[in-house]
Design a protein that fits this description.
single chain; mainly beta; 9-stranded parallel sheet; 6-stranded parallel sheet
């Protein structure tokens, strides 16, 4: 049997090189590595310099005291358990663990990981799925191999949402901007639905209150405050009131035509006529006007409120203290001196399917769903041509 140079320490944690001065065999590195496996220490951590020292001591080139029967044992390998290193990002929004596989020692357990996180003050945002993955992959590592996985994650604060207002009914302007869909999924630009009117007591708008937001946190448990949303209250317009049963609900106080406002609505009493032509004469009304037909050439319509026309406005003049909504379109033509034959003037917005040869001015936005041709538009807000 080959001479054995190695033995396990009494506590089982180390491998000792123990040779005598009168031994006949000179060990080599290969022999020592083979004997590590024989003594059950093939996976132990090796001290390379200690091995080199042991081989040098037993070399015939060294002058060994003939009186010495046994050399001082040299520790050349040791058992090492798995180790953990916890490292957090500088902003403490993530923490990762680097696990080193054991050298013949014990593997890391779940409680070991939790204790390591606790010792490094990582107490928040720990994900069990990541811990299970770390433990699972650790068992497939070779001795000394490393694996790094993020296991804890902070959460950024989510600021609250501002209060906002949901219209429960459309006004004429919105209806023009959203034609009706047909059964085959296409959009019929000529079908804009029924004219919008409301009854007394009908719900017009709902207020969605601001939210406080969701606080965030770091992996060390530091709270990151969230900014609450800005709260806004209703600004009820004429003809509307806030519900006594629900302070977040705006109701119509009377029947009429709804008009959307940024933080509320108003309901206009309306003069409803079938059309404006030579039979009706020019119209001048203190309030809103709903024209279910066309405004024919040469006619003038003036209102202190809104003007809504379900048909065409052709070679006519419209002036409103509010919005002007023309469902089918504006038609003019060019006269001598480059004068345009159709004039539309609103202090609010102007909305129409199209406009051609028209002089349009408004205090807010001018919006068209199809086209604008040979027209002059002055708007204090935006000019939008959708198609």
């Amino acid at each position: 049997m080959a001479e054995l140079f190695l033995r396990i320490s009494d506590d089982g944690q180390s491998v000792l090189f123990a040779a005598t001065a009168d031994q006949q065999t000179i060990p080599t590195r290969g022999v020592l590595l083979e004997q590590l496996t024989i003594v059950g220490a093939g996976n132990f951590y090796l001290f390379e310099k200690a091995i080199d020292s042991a081989l040098a001591v037993t070399s015939h080139d060294n002058d060994i005291d003939s009186q010495t029967t046994e050399l001082e044992p040299i520790v050349i390998a040791e058992r090492r358990n798995a180790s953990l290193v916890v490292k957090a990002d500088p902003d403490f929004m993530r923490a990762a663990i680097t696990l080193t596989a054991p050298y013949g020692g014990t593997h890391t357990t779940g409680p070991d990981i939790l204790e390591a996180l606790k010792q490094n003050r990582i107490i928040k945002g720990i994900r069990k799925t990541q811990l299970h993955q770390l433990l699972h992959e650790a068992h497939s590592l070779l001795p000394g191999e490393k694996i790094t996985l993020p296991v804890a994650f902070g959460r950024l604060p989510e600021n609250g949402a501002d209060a906002w207002f949901e219209s429960l009914v459309d006004d004429a302007g919105h209806r023009i901007l959203r034609p009706q869909a047909t059964d085959d999924g296409k959009v019929d630009m000529r079908d804009l639905g029924e004219l919008i009117t409301v009854k007394a007591g009908q719900a017009l708008m709902r207020r969605i209150p601001a939210t406080e937001g969701v606080v965030g946190y770091t992996v060390e448990g530091k709270v990151l405050p969230a900014k609450p949303g800005k709260d806004n209250q209703f600004q009820p317009g004429e003809g509307t009131l806030i519900s006594e049963q629900d302070p977040n609900l705006l109701l119509a106080e009377k029947p009429g035509i709804p008009v959307a406002k940024p933080r509320g609505m108003q309901v206009d009493e309306a003069l409803i006529i079938k059309g404006v032509n030579v039979a009706t004469g020019h119209i001048n009304f203190d309030g809103s006007i709903l024209i279910t037909g066309d405004v024919t050439p040469g006619m003038k319509v003036t209102a202190s409120g809104n003007i809504t026309v379900a048909g065409f406005v052709e070679l006519a003049e419209l002036k409103a203290g509010g919005d002007i909504s023309i469902i089918k379109g504006i038609i003019g033509r060019k006269f001598e001196g480059n004068k345009l034959g159709c004039s539309i003037e609103a202090k609010g917005s102007v909305t129409s399917k199209f406009a051609q040869f028209a002089d349009i001015s408004c205090g807010q936005n001018a919006m068209f769903t199809l086209h604008v041709l040979h027209s002059v538009i002055r708007a204090e807000g935006e000019v939008v041509v959708m198609d």
